Amino acid sequence: MKKALNNLYYFLPVQLLLLHFRRNQLLLSFWLIIVLTITGHFAAHFGASALLLAPEYLGRINFTAMFLFGSALAVFFMTWHITTFIIHTKRLPYMGATRHAFSVYCLNNSLVPVVFLIFYSVASIRFQIVNEHNTVLWILKLQMGFYLGITFVISVSFLYFFRVSRDFFKSTLTMIARPYVWRRFIPRDNLDYEPDVLPVRSFVSSNLKIEKCEDYAPYHPRVMNTIMSRHHRNVIFAAFFSYVGLFVIGQFMDYPFFRIPAGAGFVLLFSIFMGFVGAFKYFMKSWEALGWLSFAILLSLAVSNKILDLRSVAYGIDYKNKNSYRPYDYDTLRALFTPEKYYADKAIAEARLDAWEAGLPSGDTAPLVVVSTSGGGLRSTYWTFNVLQYLDSLSGGALYKHTVLMTGASGGMIGSTYWRALHEAANKGLVNNVYERKYSDNAGKDLLNAVIFSLATVDLISPINKISFEGNTYHRDRGYAFEHELVTNTEGLLSKTIGYYTEAESKGKTPQLIISPTIINDGRRLIISTQPVTFLTQPEYSLKSEHPPIDAVDFQAFLQGRHPEELKLTSALRMNATFPFVLPEVKLPAKPFINVMDAGLRDNFGMELANRYLFAMRDWVARHQRKIIVIEIRDSREFDVILPAPESGLGNMLVDPLFVIQNDWEAIQSYKHSFMKEYSPYFLQHKVDYVTISYVPKETTKFAALNFHLTTNEKQDIYQSLFNRENQAQFNHLQSKLK
């Protein structure tokens, strides 16, 4: 037993594995991130695991999607082999005497890839059974596509990269990829000398037999240098090929045929990063730590000096002539949002309610309805749309006719906006039946795939990618990809500008939409509406104050002259749903730039803005003697917003105090809104009725993921929540009120 263990320890695959853990922690981190993503311990809120376990191509999980993902993963495997071969060749002197040295190295270095493939197949099959409800036959077909993709790329790699000796690209790259040329610019010292040859006794040969190392004579330095030069050229070529491939398909991101699965793009991007890290380690040697520090400093300087700007833009807005940007400061806001403007805009809002009431049938005394929706990614989009569609169907269309205002955060606003767009299209004869199930399916279609695909192929690879709209030129990034996919999913109904709805809203023919992302410069709310809304920018009690606390900005008033009415509706919705890292923050033209992110930072449920609107309209309510219903559509229950805290350990004790506000922010807002709702009946003469409809999962601890992707199982769980006993009681109550 001791001899067997001894032989195993000195077996090349085992020694290579130990070497990677000793020397290649940074390269192993790429594997770790992919594994943690699959297990749901990394980027779980973004739904990243689904991109890897069930990749989509042309909107479907199919054979082609798995083939493309397998191909991308094979590129990642080959990059791993080539990179580590370059770094560690001098530790393997007997390799130079073997035939097909690199092939032999790949066989012995495949322990990590093989273990990963076993792990991935088990995880993927389980995910597709549990979350996608696929049949066994279909899953086997998907796995066949996956392994066929891997086999294809690996076969091409060995037939082309390592068997063909000369071609134009290789000859060109050889001239610029010779190590000794670049090493002239990097200091060398005694620390660069690494004498630790791997103590290996046996290895797997090219004919898949175990052979002993002593049977091979040590390599000649000249032979080994030749092999090094060739394979260094190959890794440069592989990285170059991956870069060009991602760059090319990024130019065609608007065409679904060219849009490879996001998981595949993500893995290809990791391949480029791994090749870069390997080259960096090889060239820098003992200067590696200083090299990474210098790289980080240069990157930071590029961002701080706006050479590299990671922010996005709002499509439709005029960003030209930076010298004429309006200053964003308190004095400017105070001059714009005056008491006179406050009362004038309030009168316009009351006139709009008059027009809405005049358009109702004679004798209609049903309540005025305000809808507020919560954030929560695609689960909130899907949940909000299904609630509105279901309730409107129960009321015979009365819900839409009596809704005067819709506001909220993130995904919830996307769902309610799509619901409004359907009815507006139906009024023009463009939609026959707004209650068709296909519209509910549209609301639940994936948005994450396009975002991650763009991140891999455009944001980090092709910063020069641009698009023109209404005479303006903008950068294309994952924000644009999100909007393009949203328009496609909704069959073009959200392709309008916000100004398209101005007339219909002002005449009360369609609900007013107030989108309210957060200005992260100072925490103010940015209020985007087709109607003037200065009366929502500050509390009424402070109008006579010399320095009123202006806590919001009227988008149209502030950006007057920058064509604010031409803002694309999808851009407004994106700003309202800019979850950190998933979507880029948006900059608006001002001095300094106004940086905008998710509405949930300020109000994740829309209740604060809804109550301010009702307070401003209290005189109109008193005059017209009409009751009010506020429908709050939430992706979590009001009394059940905090999951049980884990048992405190040392890590929790150190970290929890730092993130307590971040982790409990939704709960803090929810409790504050409950407090606000207690007072509103008094200023509305007890004419208001709050109705809360909440997504309640079948298993109370297993909510649908908070991201822009839903599995089949999650969609079913969300839809079934409509028939939850608590929600059905609220639906019956609303139905009786709207008659």
Please tell me about this protein's structure:
This protein has 739 residues and is an alpha/beta fold. Helices cover 53% and strands 8% of the residues. The protein contains 30 helices and 15 strands. Helix 5 (63-88) packs parallel to helix 8 (136-161). It is elongated, with a radius of gyration of 30 Å. It starts with a helix and ends with a helix. Mean pLDDT is 82; it is low at 164-177.
Strand order, biggest sheet? Answer: 8-5-4-14-15
Major sheet? 5 strands, parallel
Structural class: alpha/beta
Terminal CA distance = 83 Å
Question: In terms of topology, how is this protein built?
Answer:
Blueprint: H1 2-9, H2 12-23, H3 25-39, H4 48-53, H5 63-88, H6 101-108, H7 111-130, H8 136-161, H9 168-176, H10 179-183, E1 202-204, E2 210-212, H11 221-251, H12 262-284, H13 288-304, E3 312-313, H14 330-336, H15 339-358, E4 368-373, H16 377-394, H17 398-402, E5 403-408, H18 410-427, H19 437-443, H20 448-459, E6 466-469, E7 472-475, H21 478-489, H22 502-506, E8 512-515, E9 518-519, E10 525-527, E11 552-554, H23 555-558, H24 569-576, E12 586-588, E13 594-597, H25 607-616, H26 618-624, E14 628-634, H27 650-663, H28 665-683, E15 688-694, H29 712-720, H30 725-738
Parallel strand pairs: 3-12, 4-5, 4-14, 5-8, 10-11, 14-15
Antiparallel strand pairs: 1-2, 6-7, 9-13, 12-13
